[in-house]
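Data availability (excerpt). The following record was deposited with the supplementary files.
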Amino acid sequence: MVRRVEAQQQKANNWLIPGDETTLELTIGYEQVAVDLTAWIARHEPDPYLRQVYEFGVLEDFDHLYRYSNLYELLEGKHANWIVGDLTEITPGRPTIFEHRHPADEIRRPMTAVASDPQSILNALTVMSAEQQTMNYYMTIGNRFIEPIARGLYAEIGMIEEQHVSHYESILDPSATWIENLLFHELNECWIYYSFMQTEPDPRVKQLYETHLAFEIEHLHIAAELMREVERRDPEALLPKSLDHVMTFEENKHWVRQVLDSQVQLTSRDSDFVPVSSLPQDDRYFAYNSQVNAGGTPSEEVIDMNRQANGRDYRLETEGDNPVEGLRLGGDGRTRGYSDRHPGLHA
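Predicted structure:
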């Protein structure tokens, strides 16, 4: 019964998306949401390791925004500045070509739900859900393009989205019971709807969020009652007394620039984050990455094609040049070179 209501909510929310928005415009919106949402989550994450998880991931979604924005100009002749507004810059992040990692290096250390800050649980569920939706979206629409470069780019970034889902799912507590997870999910939905209500300028949409919040409060009551009846546990021992933060979408340019400058050269090894230059030559990262990128990489090809068509790649750098020297525009209008071991990013 709850799933039926959740399906109705999904339709009501998803059908708010304008029908005259093109697939690429919606895609750019997805990646901007990924950047802005993860940036807020990282800034409000109390656990240092989990904060690093979010900072690592946000640089990759930031780069995806740049790749899709160039595809948008190449195919539709339009600039993405009207979509991202004053909130988000468009410039290279951790280049997508370097994001293809061995599956064994995509699993993170999990939190312990009963010992974690409730905000950490809300953060993880929120970002994981957004990445799951993005992965499913790309799997569904990536094959709807005629142009090979578009099909290739969606396939490539769609695979990275699977990595991101594994990346974020793995920080959740694997020992939590089904009902415990249900309780946290319902709490998370209450928090999200409440947060959106605080900043939604459209009265009609705000009323929809308020209605759905009422649904989720009832779902939370149901989950709590299930825990009492089935597991003989007190749900109040797991639920926070209050939620101190309201999630907002806000300008994040300087924060992203700082993370990009300090962490662009990181990769992951097992559950740790390390400079790629610290890995031995025979590390599985290089073997896997070279296999995936063999024969050409759509995320690089789309930039080359747009440069050929328009004389330069598309960027929206309102705060100055890219903070990473190796990702700035060279005198010939091309990004300065960087090697497969990343050192050129700061050379």
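Summary of structural features: Residues 2-176+248-345 form one domain.
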